[in-house]
Amino acid sequence: MKKGDFIVIGTILLAACIGFGILFWMGRQQAGTVRIFKDGKEAGVYSLDKDQEIQVDGGENVVVIENGKVRMQSASCPDQICVKQGEIGKKGESIICLPNEVVVSVEEGEESGVDAVTN
């Protein structure tokens, strides 16, 4: 092997390391932020990084943050649609409890991607 061969191999390895570094840096997810509103007023801002249970309006609604996702664990409303909705965790997703006027919205974090395709 000659000196030129080592330079070519070194350049290829350096380019591969830089490429993997860029992919790793771009692949990291930003910690999401959840905002909870009650009666149109902000009741709190929480991070999706920290697992916790939040009681809204004295326990009328219970919101749980686990593993980077948020869900409505329980609600005092009769239809329970907000509880049945399940988990959310991507930017722009919301859980809404109309009878109790509670909105849980993911404000920052992973992008939700494409919701529709048109021709």
UniProtKB/TrEMBL annotation:
Keywords: Membrane, Transmembrane, Transmembrane helix. The chain crosses the membrane at residues 6-26. This is NusG domain II-containing protein. It comes from Sellimonas caecigallum.
